Each structure stands twice: as C-alpha cells, then as structure tokens.
Amino acid sequence: MDPDSRTPGPVQPAVPDVSADGNIAASWSLDDAITVAPAAGAAPVISRQHALCTLLAAEDIRGSDLLGDGSGLTLILGKVTVSDALLASPLEYADTTDLVPPALTAFHSRLAWVAVVDPPIVAACPATQQPVSPSGSPSDVEASPSASTARVVPYQLIVLDAVTGTDGLVYAARTNNPCAAQALYGPDVDTLMVTISVPWRLISRDPGGLFDTIALTVRSCDDFGDGAYATSAGEMQFDVSRPIATCGSSKESDQTLQGPSIGTPVATTLTHAATGFDDTTTSTQPEPSSSVSADGALCAEAFAEGPNAAPVAASYPVTVNDLRRLSGGPPPGIHPFAVQLATFPGNDQAAWCEVKTSNGYLISAVTPDGVPLDGVQNTTSTFQPFPAAIPALP
Fold first, then answer.
1. Rounded distance, CA 211 to CA 199, Å?
2. Could you read off the pLDDT of 240-282 as tens digits, one per residue?
3. How far apart are CA 32 and CA 35, in angstroms?
4. Nearest-CA neighbor of 354 among 374, 375, 373, 377?
5. Strand partners, 330
6. How much is the pTM?
C-alpha cells in the first residue's frame, strides 16, 4: 500500500540534529541502551518509501496502532546499536495465543531506518534516577521517590534493518510509571510486528445470504481473530499481525464472512481490498456495525461460544407470549421449554434462530437472555427459510 496522505509531522520534542531527509548528524543515545549514529555515507537497500510503508504499519510496544490523533513521527537513517542485555530480556505479556515470537537478533552498528514516535501515554508524574543492575544493563527496579528530576520523554523507536527489511524491533524508552511511587520503568524491547492485509478467496455462499465462507492466505506465525466482515458495498479486508522476520510457513485459514451487521445479508458482489502493509493512519478493515436487529443479536449471543458455536444463517423475531402460545395448555404451558420462560414478561423479545452446523442446519428458539430453549431444536440437511408466519414447534 502507499503511505497515507496524512503522514504525521515530526515527533515532539524533536530529535536533535536530524535533517529533512532523515540523516542524523551526531549520535543520539537513550537510557545507555540504544544509540542511533550517523549513517556515514552508507546507502540503504530498503528505500525510504518502502521503509515508511513498513513502519507506518507497525504496532507500538503495547501491540496497539502506532499512531493516534496528533501523533508525531520522525524517520531517521542511521547505524543502530542496542544493548545485548536488553535484547536478551524482551517484554513479556500474558499471551492468550500459542504463537511464539521470533527471537530478537543483535543490533551492533546496523544500518537501519528508525521511526521515532510520540509516546502513547505521556506520564504526568515526576521522574527519578533509574538504578542500574550489577550487569550494567538497565533494570526495572523502582527508584526512590525522593530523588525527583525532570520528566522523562518516553519515546518509542521502531527500528527496521535498512539492508534486508526483514528484521527489526520496537524500543520503548525509559519513562516514569504514571504515579506508581514516582518510579521509572523500562526501557523495553519487543519484536517488530506489522499489520498486514492478507489475500483471501471465496469458498462458498450460504443459501440464507447472511454469511459466506472464505479462505485466508496467512503464515503460521500470524496472529488474528476469528470472523470477517464485509462492508455494505461488498468490500472485504482482513488484517493480521505479523512479525518482521522470517517465520512460519504459508497456510490457509477458513473464516466465516458476515455482512456489516448481524442479520444483514452479505453483498451479492464481493471485492478484494488492497493487500500488503496496512500503513494508513486509520484501519480500513471492516468492523461489525452497531446496528443489529434484536433477534439477530439474540441468535448471535446464543450461538457465539462453546459447543453450540455456529454462524447465524437466519433469525426471526418473536415475543415470549408468542412462544408461550405455541407451548399449549394452561399458563405457563405444557411444552418443556415453558419453565424457561416463566420469569420473563410476555412482551420481552425472543427469537427463532437457524445456524449452520457441520452436519447441516440447526433451528432453535432462544430466550430473551440469549439461551437456547430446551426441547425445541430441529436439524435439517439443507437451509430452511423461515416462513412469513411465526414458526411452529419442530
């Protein structure tokens, strides 16, 4: 992709001795842990434009979008050196995936493009002198709150190897922990991750029109969620988070593609969004709309997780009284599900749902709190459109 026309202005406070073309005239060091030295005439293999596309698609140290409203960015070409001790202890998160990021490699006077960005959070607490561990590397030990000094600017440096373009890291400078005993924390390093729009192909379209099945072309080291959404015009973009490193193998991942909101049909004609680095300042990946029908939302809730998880093929709105009338007999009714409805007001919204399963389709009524009703589920091998009238019991 091409860099967004709203490429941000320079970072503030400004990086010293940087020219308009990104060359740095004198070495710039932070935290005794990273140094950006002049390129000294070394020519990059990766062009400035290529580097900017890559770095604008990068994620910050928290795994969030790199730039927000009003963020600054200064792009520098220089020779980068990072403390080996710091590289040996990258930032660790309570990861919810099984993905293991590639190991960080040494940076010793390596020619690199460096995007210096504004901190995602500017701490308001006074900073203090950070102690150094016996090994001479920066530590995360909290400093005494009594030795207060000027506030530290917590720059983030997004580093990309300017020769290969396939290696890099994210460096978060030391800063004061927001109001946690006035202590300093960091610096931190982590794997350079970028947001990439990946190719996909259409596998099948459901007869109900509410979802399709697509296959993504991804790598085994990619991180991404489940489910995809097309815009009302039928454009579909699917983003993954991928390390800037040689990692994983190519594979396909099947995903359920839905319309812009639950219960809205997928457009008849689908178009493929641009692939590659998602380097715009705002993501164009479609998100589910907040405009959702009540019956569609109930069906989605009832079949969202666990052994019942399935995409919604159709929904039909009913009330609790509608279902009670179907149960027969005196109130609350003789059908087994009548007990589940006993505590709900008669005008509360309920729903009939049809969902796609591995064996065909499942039809079920659900309660106003999104729970499938007992004894009213029916399976079919083919899609069955709901009739114009309230569905009868299976």
1. 18
2. 999 998 788 899 999 999 988 877 889 999 999 999 998 765 5
3. 8
4. 377
5. none
6. 0.76
